[in-house]
Amino acid sequence: MPRYGVQVRVKGLVMTVKFVLMMLLSLLPGQARADILHIIDRGIVDPKTSGPADADPYHHVTSVHSAIPGSGWDFGFSFRRSSATFQWVVDVSVEIDAGKAGHRHDDPPPKLFYYPNWPDKGTVARFDGVTLRSPQFDQGQRFWVHMAPVSYAAKLKVVGAFTVYAYGTERKPTLTHFLDVGTPGLDPLPANDRLYKLTGATAAHPENHYASSATLAALTDLAGAWKRGHPSAPLLEIGNISLPWGGAFDVKGDWKADNMHHAYGIAADIGKTNFTSGERASLIKLMCGSGFYVYSRPGNCAGHYHAVHREEFLTLKRLNWPVRLPAKAERAVNCCAAKAGSAAWRKCIGLP
């Protein structure tokens, strides 16, 4: 009997303690948590969150995302509703690692823009440099950043470092986003000196023969067909398909994206300087019949044909990727559409 009475008293004490704790918790302010609002990329981004979707003043949160070259990135920070009253500041910094994407030169950070009246996007301010500091916000305000489209491929690290001022104390959580900007599914074209020659590699872009599986197969078949049909002619020279992660070829090392044709692993430069005009005519006919758009361009591109895998291009176009073919403004000539004997045809085979 005494033993049973002791159990009752213990249980009663436990219940009393629980009740008191619940009352105390109900009187305390709610926890302030910072949320990632949006990671969007016009429908072409693939978010892969590696941690919780929100951060609070006691934890650090990371998330991993991917986007294709040529696309922008929007992200923001806010606090969930709570009974707390506080102010907070955010520092947003960007780090870039392009070496993993096939580049070997200095890298500029992407441009950041801040919308002070978000969700109203009518007013926008640009911030130069690698760190963007927000004004001081109260609990109800939000912080919204737009990163300008990144044409080159790279691994980006975007860190939102919070300083939360609440009840006379400071908390410094972080919300870190890793963004891989690159074209998925690219593989290298293997060296094969018996079938074709790989050209175009530079110190800045040492690996430049990456392509989609369909493009790799089509180029290999094209080289084989050329060798069988023209055993005494030089082997096909294949250069500058794409970098390991795709993205723009900034051939001058200045990061100006003036060449996005090779960004997605579906286009290659096919050398023509070693061929006679008759061999060039045969090569154009073979490339066009093998499922490629073929263009001839002047200037630095005069020594090769620009061959785009037709089916892959149309597939990406349907998916709303920012792909395009060479334009007339670039003085590009569509060799598949040029009629034999015409001025356009003479440009394609290299005759004045």
**CATH architecture designation of the largest domain:** 2-Layer Sandwich
Into which percentage range does the β-strand content fall? 25-35%
Number of helices: 5
Q: Tell me the Rg in angstroms.
A: 29 Å
CATH class of the largest domain: Alpha Beta
Mean pLDDT: 75
Q: The CATH topology of the largest domain is what?
A: Muramoyl-pentapeptide Carboxypeptidase, domain 2
Shape: elongated
Broad structural category:
alpha+beta
Tally of domains: 2
How many β-strand stretches? 22
Low confidence ranges? 1-57
Q: Work out the helicity level.
A: 10-25%
Cα end-to-end separation: 114 Å
Q: How would a textbook summarize the main sheet?
A: 8 strands, mixed
The secondary-structure element order is: HEEEEEEEEEEEEEEEEEHEEHEEHEH
Fold and architecture overview:
The chain is an alpha+beta fold and 352 residues long. The chain folds into 2 domains: 34-181, Immunoglobulin-like; 187-349, 2-Layer Sandwich (Muramoyl-pentapeptide Carboxypeptidase, domain 2), CATH 3.30.1380. Helix content is 20%, strand content 31%. The protein has 5 helices and 22 strands. Strands 2, 4, 6, 9, 10, 12, 13 and 14 form an 8-stranded mixed β-sheet that branches. The protein has a 6-stranded antiparallel β-sheet with strand order 3-1-5-11-7-8, with no helix packed on it. Strands 16-18-19-21-20-22 form a 6-stranded mixed β-sheet. Strand 12 and strand 13 form a beta hairpin. The longest helix has 26 residues, at 2-27.
